[in-house]
Amino acid sequence: MRVRFATLAGLAGLLVGCGPEGAGFASPESSGIPQVRGFVVTDFTFDQPKVDESVACPEGFNQNEREFYLDGLASDERTRVAADLPEGFDYLRMVNERGGPDPCGDPSAFDDPDHRLVEGAAVAVGFDLDGVVSTGERPEPMACPHQDLSGENGAPGIDNALWRVLGCIEGYQRGSTIDEYAIENIKSGGRTILIELTDLDDPRNDGDIGLGIYSSEDAIPASADGRLLAGGSLGVEKDSIYRTRVRGSLKDGVLTAGPMDLLLDFDGQFLDSELRLREAQIHLELMPDGGLRGLLGGYWDIEEFYDVYARQATRSGAYTVGFRCPAMRQALAHTADRYPNSDTGTCTAISTAFRIQAIPAFVVEPPSPSTTHASVGARSAY
User: Fold this and answer.
1) Where are the beta strands (DSSP E) in the chain?
2) Of residues 357, 33, 38, 39, the one with CA closest to residue 200
3) Does the residue 371 lie in any domain?
4) Residue 247 — very low, low, confident or very high, per pLDDT cuts 50/70/90?
5) Is 377 inside a domain boundary?
6) pTM for the whole thing?
7) Can you tell me the mean pLDDT for 346-367?
8) In total, how many domains does the chain have?
9) What is the reported pLDDT for 56?
10) Which of 83, 151, 326, 352 lies at 20 to 30 Å from 303 by C-alpha?
11) Whole-number average pLDDT of the chain
């Protein structure tokens, strides 16, 4: 078994309790020995810009089943019906007892096109994944017509079409239900992601370093009050399909790598899923406290996304977060911007971006080496 840690100086920092939350990962650049640094992700969810609801979502946030039903009634009838109509899980219990198809399990049984999308040239976080500033026309054979968003700094060409679908859902706003759910999955050990930097000659500028992104079955160590702690030893997932290694570069303390194909185990609470991003790119900033902060973007198959966040989340999850499954499914099909189906021409994948924060950790490799998941558009690390 091989433990990959930041540096020998990092190990010394752990012993004396220096650095962030008791872990020191200073790099002895003067040694001339390429360094290895390990991290574990503590925040991994959709990166949400601050939404001006009146501009981005002029009709307001999306409605859950109960709200949508009441909104379709005449105003006088709406008031009368709302007084007697149960709310929350009592409402769901009532409609389930009435029978009929499950709107999340079988969205095609319902015609509900009224999902509210983020409008126009809105602001989003992400990458220019296709290298084209798209304005609604089909720019090249692998894409579908779509309008790019703008970065928070005004940069054009941001490919984050999934934010158009999610940005007008109240439970997807920053600090809301979906963020709480993502953090709980990490704390419970269901979604542990490790990051490893190798061949690091200079912690600020290095034109060729290794980047490893791995799933792990281990939970992150935590304090008595629930804080995730740096310096834990976490094992790399034994199944090699959940290990991706590529080459990247470091400039002014910011690492960039990609495009690559990335596959991670993406379980969480009652979910059994994977995160598969194609043409993925990553930007990671090495922070003064020894951690990482950045973005991961790529193209996600819309059926895989829907399965995790609607079908497996169930009707109760959709109601709580604030959307309707059939409406979301139709919105995904109309908003997808990559990999058109050869028969229908409709796109099957949608661009997205995740925010990442990570703290130092010891990355423990499996007892025996095995073939790593191949990446597209990047040289193998080893």
Assistant:
1) 2-4, 35-46, 192-200, 206-216, 233-235, 243-251, 254-265, 274-286, 292-301, 338-340, 347-360, 362-365
2) 33
3) no
4) very high
5) no
6) 0.87
7) 95
8) 1
9) 87
10) 151
11) 87
